[in-house]
Amino acid sequence: MKSFHSLYFLILLAAAIVLGACGSDDSGDAGSVEKEKLALLTHTWTVESVTQSDNRTVEFQNPDFTITLGGEFRADNPKGPYTYTVAGTQPALRPWATSGTWTFGSDASKTLVRDDGVNVAYTLDGSTLTLTFTCATCDEDNAKKGSAEGPWIFVLKAD
To answer: CA separation (Å) from 152 to 8, 54, 63, 103, 134?
Structure first.
């Protein structure tokens, strides 16, 4: 019986050690999703297609529209701000400023927020980035309204 109690005690002790070592599933630093996504987003992206109710790709070509996303990750402020710069062709009433800042949205794995307040849903599939957003006040700085407003879908490839 004494052996049984000793064995029972050893099993309980081993279980306590194993379970105590498990800890919580707090795998990583604060902002680990933002850090991972920033590394994937940091590229110059070239237009493949642009849709706003219909195909508008031709208005973003010759030279091709590019957007460069970047910035340095800071653990003390993982949401950002980070930077973007666009180059190439855009229509006169444009959905992107030539440069600006962005932050990660409430779900860093799929939302960015531009400095003009526009929420941008994004998906990454290999070297393809799809940006989907709706402009209510795009190009307002130029006192132009019209064709830049509304829903946009940009499909871009990493250079």
So the answer is: 66, 10, 20, 19, 6
Q: Which two tokens stand for residue 23?
A: 């800890």
pTM over 0.70: yes
- 58 — phi, psi (to 5°)? -60, -30
The whole-number pLDDT of residue 145 equals 47
Q: What is the pLDDT of residues 11-59, one digit of tens each?
A: 544 555 544 445 444 445 667 899 999 999 999 999 999 998 889 899 9
**Contact in structure between 105 and 119 (CB atoms under 8 Å):** yes
Give CA separation, 158 vs 9, 30, 91, 128, in Å.
59, 27, 22, 6
Q: In this structure, what token pair is assigned to residue 55?
A: 């195909």
